[in-house]
Amino acid sequence: MISEISNCVYPIQQFNIYDGKLGVAISTGILGFHCGICYKDLDKNQEYLLHLAFHFDLKNQNVSECENYYFVAPNLSELQHELISARLIALGMELPRIPYALRYLNTCLTKEGCLKLGDGEWGMTCATFVLALFKSCGVALCDVVTWPQRDEDENSHKNIVELLVEHKVRFKITQEHIENVRKEVGCARFRPEEVAASVTFNPIPGLNNDIIYRGKEIKEFILNCSNKKAGEN
What is the domain count for the chain? Predict the structure, then answer.
């Protein structure tokens, strides 16, 4: 299966020769994996990576600055590539302020690029930002209602809360927000590698269990590639 994964996961340096206009970008990060969306702005002849780095920290970076990333080619129609890349270009110019939080069910991005929080939800992660962006363009990448809660995600959630506390002053995070996020610990977690895997199915969305399994394969593939690259250096 790893050989099959290699047919849809590529080093981000190859994004400029990729036929499509967007991909789900993924890399290893401080707390594990991190994801965003790379896209092409043909008017500027530039490739960008839009990703939620942290609390109120939506970044729109040139792909050339993101050498440790890979991208997953999405199984989308040409029209969907056009629609989603246009939304990304617009968001990249506006960069809405998005708080960092865990629970995701009904939070969404409107067609105007505004954040609309669901009831009892306080923000998004890097992974749920990608889900919400695709959903705003009519593409549901998974069934969020039946997405499983997994005990092993609790530590990852607690680490995020600790980061919010640690960087409270730098990112102007209120204590109220931290306490709201703390109450979300243990909720269903959409892992970055699973969100990346979700765009590879035909049709989209795939079954949740299949997405989770393929996410593990993508994670293993990227870790193997990263270890091989580190060994060569």
Answer: 1
